[in-house]
Amino acid sequence: MAELTAPLLADDGTRQGEVGLDPQLFGIEPNVHVMHEVVTAQLAAARAGSHSTLTRAEVRGGGRKPWRQKGLGRARHGSIRSPQWAGGGVAHGPKPRSYAKRVNKKVRRLALRSALSTRAAAGAVAVVDRFGWGEPRTKLAKAFLATAGLTGKVLVVLGTGDTTAALSFRNLPAALVLPIGQLNTHDVLWADTVVFTTDTLSVLTGQDYEVSDEDFVREAADDEGGEGA
C-alpha cells in the first residue's frame, strides 16, 4: 500500500514538501452507515426543540358550555376551546423536547476516522508547518488560500496557541475554524479541504486524543435535568 501523504505548506501558502499521514486515521475503508448515524445525531442535538402549542386545557377561556346539550338542532359542544373551534387548542401538537440521540464513543471515533479517510483519499487534506503571522489580518488568510490553491469550503483545525490565525480566518465565509478538541465528523464532511497544522496533526495522531462529544452535550443536559411529566 502506498504511503499516505499530504502537502506541507508554509504560512504564505507555498508548498514546502510532503508530510506522512497515519493510515489508521486517514487510510481506513470509510463506513458510510456510521458517518450517516453520527452526522444525523449531531444535527439532531443542534435542534432547539423549543416549539410548543397550547392544548385545550391551556387555552384561555371556554369555561362555559356554548349552548345547551339538546333541543337546538346543532352539534353538542362543551367548550369553545376544543380543537375543532377556531382559536381552540391543538390536538397532538408539538411540545418542548430533546432530539438528542445516544451515540457510542467508538462509533463517533470510527465516523471521524472514516470522514478523514474520505478527505485524504480525495487529496483534500493539507498541513501547515505553522501560522507565524504577527497580527490577525483577513488579507493574510485570503492570500494563503489563494496561493495554496484551496478553493471551496475550507476547515482549518488549530491549536490553543493559534489565536492569530483563528482571528484571521473567522471573517471568511467559506472558511470554518475549529480547535482540535472539537474536530467532528459533520464539519470534516462539510469541508472541501481540511487544513491541519503540524501541531494539531500530532495531537490527532497521539494516543491520548479523545473524539469530541461537544455536539452531544444537549443529551447530557437533558439527562441531568430530566423531562417534565
What does this 3D model show about the protein?
The chain has 229 residues and is of the alpha/beta class. It is 33% helix and 13% strand. It has a six-stranded mixed sheet with strand order 2-1-3-6-4-5. Helix 2 packs across helix 3 (105-121) and helix 4 (138-148) packs across helix 5.
Care to give the gist of this entry?
The protein is 33% helix and 13% strand.
Let me know the CATH homologous superfamily of the largest domain.
Ribosomal protein L4/L1
Kindly report the CATH topology of the largest domain: Ribosomal Protein L4, Chain: A
Class from helix and strand fractions: alpha/beta
CA-based gyration radius: 26 Å
In the residues, how many domains can be counted? 2
Q: What is the correct CATH architecture of the largest domain?
A: 3-Layer(aba) Sandwich
Strand content: 5-15%
Strands of the widest sheet, in order across it, are 2-1-3-6-4-5
**Class of the largest domain in CATH?**
Alpha Beta
What is the number of helical segments per DSSP (H or I, 4+ residues)? Answer: 8
How many angstroms separate the termini?
A: 57 Å
Uncertain spans, ≥5 residues at pLDDT below 50? 218-229
What key phrases describe this protein's structure?
6 strands; 229 residues; single chain; Ribosomal Protein L4, Chain: A; disordered C terminus; alpha/beta
Please outline the helices and strands.
Blueprint: E1 5-9, E2 15-20, H1 23-26, H2 32-45, H3 105-121, E3 125-128, H4 138-148, E4 154-158, H5 163-169, E5 175-179, H6 185-190, E6 193-197, H7 198-205, H8 217-225
Parallel strand pairs: 1-3, 3-6, 4-5, 4-6
Antiparallel strand pairs: 1-2
Helix pairs in contact: 2-3, 4-5
